[in-house]
Amino acid sequence: MEIDLEKRLMQKHQQTAQQLLDYSVSLKQLFQDQWFYLWTLTPDNLFVVDSDHQQLLIADGLLKVEFKQSPAGLIQFSTSHPEISVQKLADFVANEISFLIRDLKAQHSLFLKTKVQLFRQLLVEEVFKWVDGENRIEHYLYNLNLHDAQALDQIMMDAGYYEVAHLTAFAASGTTIPLSVELNFKHLSLVNSILGANFLTIQPLMLAYDQLCFSAESFIPAPVYRIIETTFHDHFTLAQVIEHQTEFNLLLNHAKEQPQVLVFASWIKRGYWQYSDIFSKKNFTTANSPYWDEQISSRFPLFYFNRTVNWLFKQDKLVIDWVAKRIDQINVRVAVTALSFVDTSQIHPHILVLTLKYFKSIAGRLFVQACHDAADKNAWFLLENSSDESTQSTVKHPYVLRDTVPNTSNKTEISASVLYLEEWLHLLYLQAKNDQRVAKHVYKNLSRVMQAYALFMQRLIDGLPNELIGFIEPHTQEHPQFLAILQKYQLEKEKFRKIFKHPVLQFNRNTSVFDSYVADYLLDYFHQPQTLAKNVTWSGLYQQAVRWHQQIHYQDTLSKLRLRLDIETWRRVSPQEIMFTERWKFIELNSLEQIIHESTSYKHCLALSYTERIAEGEYVAFHMSSLDDEDIHLTLGCYFKFEQLHFDQLRLPNNEHASKDVVQDAKLFIQQVNQHLIWDFKARKVE
């Protein structure tokens, strides 16, 4: 209702503007003078990206924004009409348009609509100034003859703009024309008032503006854009680029010569940016480098091995950027080092990033455990402290393992805790200084599980269009471009998402390949000193993780139930241990072990919610399996009242409801059992 009213008011406003134009030659000329600047404008040429000349053309060239690789100025604004000032248009483009650096969530339609409406209105008002519209309106109104004043008053009063003939009063007796009347005439003389909705239609303008926001890389020189994407997080304005002009000039040569690693500049003190060797590989393996910011500068280097830095420098900028932004996180550095020991040349950069993401929270703990095992096996601590010179270690180090031998020296005490991760890294470096095979051996298990994940993920994306690889993670699938690409390749969203879920094993729910399900298992697995097979697969690790999670759930549930119950088994209700109908096999669950296995295997709440009632003789549970299909398993729950079973519920794995036909079969089984019950409440003996 409100929208219809607004639309009618706008139509009435336009009709009034056109009536004034039809009546007055002066107002028509004022419109023609404005139209001179605007007549070529369409939604397609309001925001034009000229990639070949690295420039933006705003309003069909009324404003030109050029990008230069010059210390004198990275951005230059100009116009092809020297007689006008485009400063306000330039200010809008510089300050109001946010260019997005990476594909983020879609911009809200209301945001886009507001932006294009503001720019369109600004453009119209600026054109009105260029033709001296305000003075011309005032001059026109104050020089009207009585006849014209009466005619204009009639148009305005019929439209409801005012109720008193102000222009006639001024023409007849010189009564002052109210400011509100002048403003009405000025507003009605604007181009968009006259043309209404036909002037630069909002909807296509929104699309053009949205595309402009994502187009920065196509019109900004590559070295400059590289500085921008490593300086700003996810968006920037041209005003911010101008503000950082001095810093950009310092980085420009680096951006031309070493664009891949430029992102590390954010961790380097600004006073050293003009130095030519700030991205030298040795700075990454040297402790206390003067270049690094205090946040990451320490008595330990960022990386301990040249091979790690060499591996990192060879990667796509997608990988380097992700690592660089988190270089202060020691877990990330451990994960990078682990990957550097295996061949990743055939792995897509996006998959490498996902692999680092998956392991960054556990890499440190897995490494410490592996390093501790190696130290224990090779007696890194004991040999050096041995009184027998023939068994003393030839590798000196400043560490002693806490709670093993009395620390009579000034050595640093460490333990197998991630809190001492940096010390363990340093210890390994000292042990492997003369033989890097030592480091490779310690990292071996971590490297292999990371490689297994990367190869597993790579196989998942093999055959997918390259455009879709950036939309693998669920949170990236909110962008409208994702749906557009799916439609382009005739792919269904749910089928695409299903690609990145582990297959259902032992009635597990679908587990995302990004979930920490396997990672949780690896933390426990690495506490068992053993070497992973070189051909270990992620699918195999997932299967092991399923069994591990079930066992953990079993033990946890058993511990809870033993606090509530003092018995392990109880007498069954059924006349036989195993019973059959025409299509089904039934087994009554009359022990803690059976009930817990039923809950953990088929993922429902039987154990924690019903065990006490079952033990007390108030409830009975059966495992029900199909004789025709070995993959069909259900759990049947019954009340036990007055020595009779009464149907309560029948559940498939994951607590899903059974079909009506199967429920009917279960009820028929209950009727048959009720005819042969042998329960004796007073004698709790186990059969």
Any overview of this molecule?
- Residues 385-393 and 679-687 have low confidence and may be disordered.
- A hairpin with a 3-residue loop joins strand 9 (578-580) and strand 10.
- It is flat and about 115 Å long.
- It has 3 domains: 1-214, no CATH class; 348-384 and 393-563, no CATH class; 578-678, no CATH class.
- Helix 1 crosses helix 2 (25-38), helix 16 (317-324) runs parallel beside helix 18 (349-359) and helix 18 crosses helix 22 (437-461).
- By secondary structure, the chain is an alpha+beta fold.
- The strands form 4 sheets. Strands 9-10-11-12-13-14 form a 6-stranded antiparallel beta sheet, with helices on both faces. The chain has a 4-stranded antiparallel beta sheet with strand order 1-2-3-4. Strands 5-6 form a two-stranded antiparallel sheet.
- It is built from 29 helices and 14 strands.
Give descriptors for this structure.
alpha+beta, 3 domains, four-stranded antiparallel sheet, flat, disordered C terminus
